[in-house]
TrEMBL record, chains A, B:
It comes from Anaerovirgula multivorans. Gene3D superfamilies: NAD(P)-binding Rossmann-like Domain. InterPro entries: MoCofactor_Util/Proc (IPR052698), XdhC_CoxI (IPR003777), XdhC_Rossmann_dom (IPR027051). It comes from the Bacteria. Residues 94-236 form the XdhC Rossmann domain. This is Xanthine dehydrogenase accessory factor. Residues 273-329 form the XdhC- CoxI domain. It holds the Pfam family XdhC_C.
Length: 362, 362
């Protein structure tokens, strides 16, 4: 039954949609076998009020907040219901149209900042893996025809850095069809103007063209290709985190964009009925290797999939997970990564994290 | 005589000052031996009107523009004077106080963006070359005592990312003494407020504290250490290029911050009297490996120092330079880096550049 939830979740993510998985946990005293009840709330359903899943209103409100903010929530008030609300965001993708001297540092910075990067150019000498080692995909195809080789959706950030305004127009005719998270186009004011005029004459509305950031990038006075790439990636980050508003308000919180362990979700979606445990990071404090939402699967005979950060603490959690698999149910476990030894060894982590370990049988 | 100009130039640069070298060239027909006349204009002198060097007023105005914009100028109108106006800017330095999880990506991005990076921390496990491979210097010293180990001047960008507000205060007490190009300090609003209150109570003025960017970085909604480092380096770039105004005007042009071949200047400052030629890139178009201001020295027997970009074109220039050394005087030479071959080979360069080759004997 949970397998179908994870299958639906993956479908939503692949369509560029966010979703929330709510897990309601019965008290540990309860002897019921079905004490972990999971519900998938999709972005579309969340707009439909709380009528489909008939959730507790407080939990539903918290799920909506999780969907907007990307913040995982875990409440374990004694006497009340214990619940885990996990927002899932699609992996952000950066599509770089054009493989020239701006694309090179941009692809590198994009990958470094956590985007899955795709670079497209029609020249084999510019569209190859040697030139873009950090890109997930490098596509050599004309700008007109390339658009059926990748998807653009609400978690896709599109940067147009081709070598000429004709290619820009070829790209924009396609890009403007989709609801991308970000569209930016490089070019002098004159080139941008001529591209916009051409598209207006073809029937594109001013409103559609206004969605495009052109000239591209934050106005930091960038001169070199590396600086221009920084100005672009900084703007892309602002769209990822603030939705392009460049200002914070209570209504639109900073989007946390939680960690996504796709490999773990795919395993869970298979519905294999071998007993295992799911370990989820539910809160962190200070400097820790992985953030809330990170997941690891543990099988009783020692196999694992995914990671909550490695090191000694992971070994301890694997040990505890075996008990959880044996006894069913769930456990909440703190992990202390502070301490003098950590600092003296110059390790990155020096914080605390809390994980939930759930037993998992189909 | 020119050697002393270069010695003075290096002194100015080391003090964080900009300067301009004006070279006035006689016509090639002239048989005079002193047809290359060089003048050093320092930043201080430029404020003193045009009285010291008695330069042509047009040239003096252009030198002032070069000092503000960083743009090299080369005029070779036939019939008029030929002159080369070269602005020299100190190498920009990024001082990172604190070696924690923000400092790590920041030092990397800073070096990548052309800054000479110094990282300081009082913990050996955080202040070491393994942790900061891209930093020019890593200093392990207390934040109180470290300030006599490096210099802060008008081309120094200072980022305070220590692990606590006491260290912040130790840093600021020192940093605020200098006229740094940029000061930024990380910290929550509360931490920043408490640091400012402490310093106000010690007699620092509100005006001085206002020079500091705190909270640090552009407001792009950064969450991860890498994103925070991007928001900081983007702000640092805006100070480097726009002087912190984040807006362009005719009065304050984008600062080009020309290439500095210190190794070449140091050689010229020695005043060795062996004949050689100085090759200077004076203009570029399109994608070229080095920009205006790049310098290379060529000796008649084939030795070179510095580089104008390498490749076949450099070989050709070295050949021509030998003629210039033999015949004295100077030559202007275009270098064509366009052409199908370049593009097909996926090379970075596909532009044009123009170089001036001057013979040079003390």
């Amino acid at each position: 039954m949970n397998a179908s939830i994870y299958r639906n979740l993956i479908n939503e993510l692949d369509a560029g949609k966010k979703a929330v998985v709510v897990t309601i946990m019965s008290d540990k005293d309860s002897e019921s076998n079905s004490f972990l009840e999971k519900t998938l709330l999709t972005e579309g359903e969340m707009g439909l009020q709380n009528c489909i899943h008939n959730l507790d209103e407080v939990i539903f409100q918290k799920a909506q907040y999780a969907l907007e903010s990307g913040n995982l929530q875990f409440d374990k008030d004694p006497g009340k219901k214990t619940y885990l609300i996990e927002p899932y965001f699609p992996e952000p993708r950066l599509i770089v149209l054009g493989g020239g001297h701006i694309a090179k540092p941009l692809a590198e910075f994009g990958a470094r900042l956590g985007f899955l990067v795709t670079v497209i150019d029609d020249r084999p000498s510019f569209a190859n893996k040697e030139r873009f080692p950090d890109a997930e995909r490098v596509i050599c195809e004309s700008f007109e025809k390339c658009f059926n080789l990748f998807r653009i959706n609400e978690s896709t950030f599109v940067v147009i850095v081709t070598r000429g305004h004709r290619h820009d127009i070829d790209c924009l005719r396609q890009v403007l069809k989709y609801n991308a998270a970000y569209i930016g186009m490089i070019g002098s004011k004159r080139r941008v103007k001529s591209v916009k005029e051409q598209l207006l004459s073809e029937g594109y509305s001013q409103e559609m063209l206004n969605k495009m950031n052109a000239p591209i990038g934050l106005a930091i006075g960038a001169i070199t290709p590396d600086e221009i790439a920084i100005s672009i990636i900084a703007q892309v980050i602002s769209y990822r985190r603030l939705g392009g508003t460049m200002s914070l308000s209570a209504k639109s919180p900073k989007m946390n964009w939680p960690e996504l362990d796709r490999i773990v979700l795919e395993e869970l979606s298979k519905g294999e009925n071998d007993p295992k445990a799911v370990v989820t990071v539910v809160s962190t404090k200070g400097s820790v290797p992985r953030k809330a939402g990170a997941k690891m699967l543990v099988w009783p005979y020692g196999k694992t999939l995914g990671s909550i950060g490695g090191g000694c603490s992971e070994g301890e959690i694997i040990h505890i997970a075996r008990d959880v698999i044996r006894n069913r149910g769930y456990m909440v476990q703190p992990i202390d990564m502070t301490g003098q030894i950590v600092e003296d060894e110059g390790m990155v982590c020096g914080g605390m994290m809390e994980v939930v370990i759930e037993s998992c049988v189909e």
